[in-house]
Amino acid sequence: MDRIRIIRSTSFRWAMAVACVLAAFVIGLFGFVYWKADQYLIARSDQMIGNQLAFIAGLRGELRLGAINDHLKEDSRGVQYGGLFGVDGHKLVGNLERLPPDLRIDDSAQSISVERTAPAGAETHVIRAIARRLADGDVLVIGREVDETREVSHVVAQALALGLLPALCLCLLAGAWLSLRAQKRVEEVNQRVQRIIAGDLRERLPQRDGDEPFARLTVIVNGMLDEMETMIHALAGVGNDIAHDLRTPLTRARLTLERGRTTAATLEQLQLVADKAISNIDQSLAIVTALLRLAEIENSRRSAAFGTVELHDMLREIFDIYEPIAENKSIKLHVGLLQHLSVYGDRDLLFEAFANLVDNAIKFTPEGGRVSIELMRVDNETIVRVSDTGPGINHQERDAVLRRFYRSDKIRNTPGMGLGLNLVAAIVKLHNFKLAIYPGPGGRLEIICPDHRSG
Question: Please, which contacts does 196-200 make with residues 24 or more away whose CB atoms are closer than 8 Å?
Fold first, then answer.
């Protein structure tokens, strides 16, 4: 079964395809080498035959006959052919039995079948030959067997067999190994994914060092699983937090109505009871509205409303809104807008984020304190800083204050829902900005806007 799976795997099929392409390429290469070598050897033989023919044809009488005999006697390999034929076609000298009828007498090299005189009798061979009619009417034929081409073809065939077959086997083995390796990795991933589906949120895919695509994909998937685990744990706690925060105002509303029904004796008393109940219900609705708004921002991936936002004008507007609120608490609200700076983002969302920071600063600063709004430019970054003289945030609470419904013991009695900084963090994340919280006495928070466009 495993062998069938390996053979059917994509890796093995790709290895087979590569092996076939390699085989076709090697066969074509060897064929081309053989063809070029054959052409070269034939051309060289034709040149040698032509030179010998020209030399012998230039001799006269007995010298020509002796030259033909000497030429054939010096042929230790038995590949030389020659013959001199009279005007009537009978043989005068040479190892050719007769003048080949298909041989053109025009000084051109041709491949022909000839009969050769040998000790064992006449033999038929295919040779390259050139024929020339001499001045006295005789026909001189010089030929040669091109046996080197057969040797070359034999050598090429051996090299092809010895080189191609091991290469094909190596390709198939590599394909089987890659297929088996991929199957093991996929099987391991499948097992871990099954455990994740079963509810083990701490499980992660096997991660190996390297820059291969599968390793990069594993890093991305594990990052996604980390984010999902965080979100699931957050959702598990949000339900309890919502129930807890909604139960208090709803319980107050119920008790108020119940007592009013029992004790209210006049219309004014009933109206007072109804006002208190409405106030508690409004608080519950505010919590639900804030949660819906937060979910809308966190799930938003659109940037259609993004554009250039003039921070100088926006912060001046926020200052004008909150200055009367600060005066009511005897808090001095200061704004330092020395530069006209802008960022790329959603103006309404950024207004909401900066307003939340200023609102929190005023809310948690004691009477007679001070709240500052500053706009500055540092190292290619635009920074909006909101600082106050309130109790501040300690080191242990830096991460906790960004959770939904978190309420520090120091501000437990201060009105609020614990969603302000969580909302600010969601807006900052949507814009690819950074939220910096500086712990210690006196609150100091910064929204840092790098010089790039979000979305």
Answer: 196/225
Q: pLDDT, tens digit, for every residue of 174-230?
A: 777 777 777 777 778 888 888 888 878 788 878 777 667 777 888 888 888 888 877
Render pLDDT for 438-451 as a digit per residue (tens, 0 to 9). Answer: 887 778 888 999 87
Token code pair at residue 192? 């871990």
pLDDT confidence band for 142 (50 / 70 / 90): very high
Q: Check: CB of residue 335 under 8 Å from CB of residue 372.
A: yes
Q: pTM (2 decimals)?
A: 0.45
> Which residues lie below 8 Å from residue 109, measured CB to CB, with a gap of 6+?
46, 49, 50, 128, 129, 130
In angstroms, the CA 32 to CA 45 distance is 20
Question: What's residue 450's pLDDT?
Answer: 87
Query: Residue 15 in contact with residue 178, Cβ under 8 Å?
Result: yes
Confidence at residue 44, expressed as pLDDT on a 0 to 100 scale: 85
Vertex 334 angle, CA 333 and 340, to 5°: 135
Q: What is the pLDDT of residues 396-439, one digit of tens each?
A: 665 656 665 555 545 444 444 445 677 788 788 888 888 888 88
pLDDT of 391 reads 80
Backbone CA torsion sign across 387, 297, 429, 431 = negative
DSSP letters, 31-93, are HHHHHHHHHHHHHHHHHHHHHHHHHHHTS-THHHHHHHHHHHHT-SSS-EEEEEE-TTS-EEE
Cβ atoms of 382 and 311 within 8 Å: the answer is yes
* Residue 136 structure tokens: 């006295």
User: Residue 204: helix, strand or coil by DSSP?
Assistant: coil
Instruction: List all residues 6 or more positions away from 197 whose beta carbon is below 8 Å from its beta carbon.
Output: none
- Residue 332 CB burial class (10 angstroms; 0-12, 13-18, ≥19): middle
Residues 6+ apart with CB under 8 A from 446: 383, 384, 385, 386, 435, 436, 438
